[in-house]
Amino acid sequence: FVASPQLPLPSTCILVDYIWYTVLQSSSEFVQGTCTPQVHAHVGRTDERGKLLAAREEGREQGREQGEQIGLAKGALAGKVQLLQELLGDMPMTANELQSLSVDTLATQFAELQQRLRDRQA
What we know:
5 helices; mainly alpha
């Protein structure tokens, strides 16, 4: 294919721009030379859109990672709370009850149960 002086080379574009570039190469307007900046104004928007989509995906990935970390911490605390409740002879909370609690509440519950166990052993 022949590079156009009106559009950047594909190597300088993101994938979406490259697709538009390829489509525009085959358009009759492009071949006839009647192409105007208004016709190709979408190329710049496509680059901006690509950046926005990449940023959105990065945000989603960070959110997933944070959610996973919070879920692991919450699960570990819930398991410890149940174990301490059993060791103390308390009726263990159900998984649904524990799941409805925040990480801070679970941490507080764990600290209180841990202190009760220490006091009992003293």
